Structures are given as C-alpha cells and as structure tokens.
C-alpha cells in the first residue's frame, strides 16, 4: 500500500523541471507512504515516477520504483496476495527480493499485458518498458486502489489522488455530468470526476501509452451465469472454502494486522476468521467507533459481542459533534471529492485510532453488494412480490421470493418508513429499472436547492439503465440486477472512502470479500440461494453462522454506521453550517440556491442524506476549487 505519481511525455520531448514536479507530487501524497520516498527518471527525461512507501512486505528490499534487468521500471500501489504462489510459477526469474512488487515485474516479463489475469489482489501500477518504448498501466478488478490522470501540454500526469494533479491544471472547470450524477446518487457513473480535466481509469482496465497514443481496454468482467443444478449445501460448502482461502491470503503481512469492527455481519466474519487463521505473531486487534449521543447511533455493543466471542482485543473511539467541526475539512480533503454517505467521517476517526496500533487493517466492504445486504433490496422486492401476486406471475422465474414468505422479514424496514412513503408515492409497478432508479435517486429531495437548468440536458437514468441492464447479467433475476448495479457503482465509491480514510493515517486497508475467485463463484448463485424468503445475505449467514454471536445473527436493525449529522444540524452544527453556506464564495457556485439549502436542511429526517451531500460538496468547493491557486503555487517554489 503506497502512493504513486508521475509524468510521461506524449510527444517524446523532455518534461521540463521533471525532478521538481515529482517532488511536489511526492509531498502531496506523503501521507500514503510515510515510510519513505523513491524516484525514477529515465535518461531522456521523458518518463518520471514518484513513489511513497508504506512498508508491509519485505520491509528492507521492497523499495520503489523498482527496475529489473530487462529495462522495465515499476511504480506500484497495492498488495498481490498470491505473490508466493506466483513466484513458484515464475521460477526461472532471478529474484532479488521477497517482495510482491518484484513478482509483478517477473509476471510482466513472462506474460506481458496479460500479467493482470494472474494477479490476485488490489493494485494500481505503471510499468515503463524501455525496450518497447511504451508505458503499461493497470488497475485491479474492483477499483480498490485508485488511479487518476490528466493530460496537460502533451504530458500525461498520473497519481493515486486527484489533489496531486491539481498543480498541473491551469484552470478548474466543473464537470456537470459528474455533478449531476453526484446530486442523483452521491457517486459517479463514469470514468469522469468533478473536475473536467481529471479522468479515473476504471476498475478492471488497462491503459497502454505508445507513441503518444492512449488505448484503454477492459481485462475482466463478472458474468452472472446462474447454476440451477447445485444444492444450497454445495454453495455453502464452496463459499466457506473460498472465504477462508481469501482471508488466509489477505493476512499475509510482515507487520501486525487488525480489523475494523462495525457490529455487522461482514466485518464480524472477516475479523473472526482472520483472528484464527492469521500467521502473524502479534495479537489480532479490532477497532470500532461509536456515537454515544444516542442509542440510535451506537452499535458498539455488537462489536464487543464479536470481540468477546473471537477473543479479539477491541479498541473503541467515541465520536462527537466537536470532532465533526474539527475534522470534516480534513475528511473531505483526503476524500479528494465528495462521494457516498457520511460514513467517511466516523471511518476517518476509527482509522486514526487503528493507526496508533496497526499498519494493516481488514474490512468487510463488498459483502452487501455481493450477497445482497441492503434493506432497499427488500423494499424493491416487496413491491415486485405484490405485483407478481396480483398478476399471478410469482412462479414464472422472475420472482424467487413470494409475498407470503417475505412478510416476517419486513420488520427490517422499521426505520425506513419515510423512504417507503416516498418510494410508493408514484410509479408503483412500473418497469423494474425505473423502480430501482427511483429507490436510489436522491434528486427528488433537491427541489429549489439546485438550479437544474444550469446542469445541461444529460439524463442520469440513461447511464443507470445501461449498467442496470448490463449484458453480463441475466434477465431472470431482479435481485442480480440490483446487486450488480451497486457492485459496479456504489462499491467503487465505498472503496474510495476505504482507501482515502485509511491512507489519511498511513495504514493499509484490505477487503477479503473482494477476491475474484469468490466474486465469480457468487455470481453463479441463483437469487433464491442468496436471498431466500426475504432474508438478506442468507447464504453468507448460513455458511458462516458459527463465527457469529447470536446477537449479530438475529439483528434486524443494522444501520451501517449511522451518523447523527441531521440531529446535530439544528443544534451543535447550526452555526458551522450557517457560516459555510452564507459565505460570499458559497454564493458564487452557480448551481445552488443557498438560502433554500439552509431552509431545507432543517426539515430532513434523521437518516436522510441530503444534508451530507450538500455539506460535503460545499466543503469540497472551498478546499479545492477556491484554493486551486495554492496548489499551483507549489510548482513555483
């Protein structure tokens, strides 16, 4: 886990002041690699890399950028968990280190661009192939590790974080397509970012730079080829094997490890198994955060139950409204741009706590998108079950859950009555893509607050529909379409939070559920295996129930680290928020009606996301857009 950055000439001309540019980029990403910096510049000064290292594997010899005996130089961020197995396959290579970094170079030497198909892990890397005079870039299958780039004056600049590219952009322009996506979903549906000139390399893609030309290719996809011939027992046994195998690989580390504990199923499974299978000599530790402001926002008792059952030492941090005021600007700065929900704020503080004790932390990201853990799936399916019962189509293959069997699980919707009321208000029984779009679309909450006419003609539904109805997903299962859309869009957003909040404190976050053999296997499970009788994540809980305390198994109220932000708005944060949206700069954005924003924030329900969405967006403007000149000044020093 590290930070990478660099500059590559696209016209074969020398990059002026290349050494200085790399130093500036290194400083902006120093938090990602506090253990050391490394630089590479080729002889013609047309290619330069900067690397910030967080030492996890081969602490003494794994420094980067790393050059092999064949003229290939690698700048890499991430971990390859199967590096030991790959090293055996690459036995003819003359290895000089025990690092996973050198294994990538050896894999590239043997398999060329196809090396990515052999890598099991999280990665974003750049290889300068001096012999071929080309640059090969790759990002992992799920987007766990970030990669951004911009092209300015025939130079390709890349980095792990967007802020590192800002000094090289003359003027920032808002990408209104990205902004519209954000206002609808609090995430982005394409490879664009909020800044016009900054592009994100999509997950599971490679990028080749040859003679100044860029070519981007997809190298992996998940296909929902459902296997109806296997029994539930088969799926449980194979899933058990794959989860254990992935966690064992993810606990490979030359430094002590721990885990985030939210009190939910996913993080509890990861921590419980890891605490037993880890070969690390240091004690396994867990870390959790809590809001003692109210029982509604405190899930720490479940984290304690798991820690007690698994014999894990648990560290806790109490998070307050003062913490929000004192740290929210740092949270948004490290996020790079606003994305996903307010969970980034408590995760920042839990990561800060974890960094005092560990350099590697395991998390449960991916479980909800793979196995179906979001309550909205239950809401959407409830509607489809009613429709199926009325139309007498419950058993035609499209509805794997009957309305009779789903009723006992509707208690999970207790805290979602406002959402249900809004969801069923209009469009009932319309096509399923329209219904799921309505369920996740946050734009209806933003009426007078946004000057929609200023954002152009782009319609997010068209992009949404293309992903939702992807050709890799079968037509039979509504459930697979919903989880697939979230897997492709929400999950990368949550992984951005995971990466930035951990790296803000110089720790490595690993996500064992995101192991491609496990993902590919889960995609063969029929929906009624994952979601039988309306029980969310049924296959996962049935398979791993021996790892979990009864209290977690029987939970019906999991909220996903809720934040009392909307409770604070009218009290502790009232002055802070009022000052933020009343400033002269805030009134110049062009897309917002700030007086309407201040009026609307006070009427939001406890768990609404409008306040977070607008608040983090304005702080982002303040930190990046308004301060762009400070980033540019770094090049002049």
Termini, distance in Å?
29 Å
* Rg from alpha-carbon coordinates: 24 Å
Number of helices: 26
In the CATH scheme, the class of the largest domain would be: Alpha Beta
Mean pLDDT: 91
Structural class: alpha+beta
Could you characterize what this model shows?
- This protein has 637 residues and is α+β, with helices and mostly antiparallel strands.
- The protein folds into four domains: 2-220, Aminohydrolase, N-terminal nucleophile (Ntn) domain (Glutamine Phosphoribosylpyrophosphate, subunit 1, domain 1); 232-371 and 489-553, HUPs (Rossmann fold), CATH 3.40.50; 375-484, no CATH class; 565-632, no CATH class.
- The chain contains 26 helices and 17 strands.
- A six-stranded antiparallel β-sheet has the order 2-3-1-9-8-10, with helices on one face. It has a six-stranded antiparallel β-sheet with strand order 4-5-6-7-11-12, with helices on one face. It has a five-stranded parallel β-sheet with strand order 15-14-13-16-17, with helices on both faces.
- Strand 6 and strand 7 form a beta hairpin.
- The two termini are 29 Å apart.
